[in-house]
Design the sequence.
């Protein structure tokens, strides 16, 4: 099966030391993969590379068989929650419709089909009842669902989420991951998380990133392994893969 995401010897630095060092990763269609690692381990940087927002210093990135900046219209992205300011007047429906811009273009306004897709994804993420609410009035969990609806509105083949459940309580975290599990039957999902133990119940594989990358199949992560991986992950600020 051909990979939907393929990274070959990808190296990157902003201006100082390497943030990503010879990363190799192939993600196949409909895979549900978790990306974990310590703070500053390079997780957001790796996602930005797959979205075509950053270019590797060396190595090759391919998404859906093409350069990432060309395939990004088929990729839905849910940004890291605290980085997103919502102190401007915009409704839930308008936010979700923004997800159609890359598909339909900005000129001539939204078509009926755009509104239908927006409606469908709002129902799927259970925010349809909130469609006329202002974004700034939502709870953290509701906002996260709206951002997921916005990412789904482009009818993506790949969905990337950067810590979708940071600052959200456990019950809602479970609901969001149940939804991701459902979605994973029809798209590839790449989710950044700090919680290896929790996501192991959902994802098929965990990619552990701390400048270099090591993959662990979920089947290999149980009992003691979860604990040791979890502890290793917590301690990994000073830890380097060999
Ligand atoms: N725009 C930037 N300019 C310079 N350095 C940056 C920039 N963005 C990130 N970095 C640095 O690159 C390293 C990796 O950051 P990145 O955000 O990818 O890590 P992360 O694993 O997503 O971290 P976290 O779990 O804290 O979100 C960090 O040392 C960070 O300070």
Sequence:
């Amino acid at each position: 099966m051909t990979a939907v995401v393929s990274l070959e010897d990808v190296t990157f630095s902003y201006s100082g030391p390497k943030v990503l060092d010879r990363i190799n990763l192939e993600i196949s269609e409909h895979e549900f993969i978790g990306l974990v690692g310590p703070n500053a381990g390079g997780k957001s940087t790796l996602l930005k590379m797959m979205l075509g927002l950053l270019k590797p210093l060396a190595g090759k990135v391919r998404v859906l068989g093409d350069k990432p900046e060309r395939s990004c219209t088929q990729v839905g992205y849910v940004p890291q929650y605290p980085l997103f300011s919502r102190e401007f007047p915009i409704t839930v429906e308008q936010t979700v419709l923004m997800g159609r811009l890359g598909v339909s273009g900005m000129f001539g306004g939204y078509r009926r089909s755009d509104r239908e897709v927006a409606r469908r994804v709002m129902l799927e993420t259970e925010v349809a009842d909130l469609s006329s609410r202002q974004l700034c009035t939502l709870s953290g969990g509701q906002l996260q669902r709206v951002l997921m609806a916005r990412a789904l509105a482009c009818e993506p083949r790949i969905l990337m989420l950067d810590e979708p459940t940071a600052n959200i309580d456990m019950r809602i975290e479970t609901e969001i991951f149940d939804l991701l599990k459902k979605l994973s039957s029809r798209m590839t999902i790449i989710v950044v998380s700090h919680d290896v133990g929790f996501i192991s119940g959902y994802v098929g594989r965990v990619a552990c990133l701390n400048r270099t990358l090591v993959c662990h199949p979920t089947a290999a992560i149980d009992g003691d392994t979860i604990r040791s991986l979890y502890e290793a992950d917590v301690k990994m600020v000073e830890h380097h893969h060999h």
Observations:
- Residues 225 and 239 are 17 Å apart (CA to CA).
- The chain has nine helices and nine strands.
- The pocket of adenosine-5'-triphosphate is lined by residues 14, 19, 37, 39-45 (CB under 6 Å).
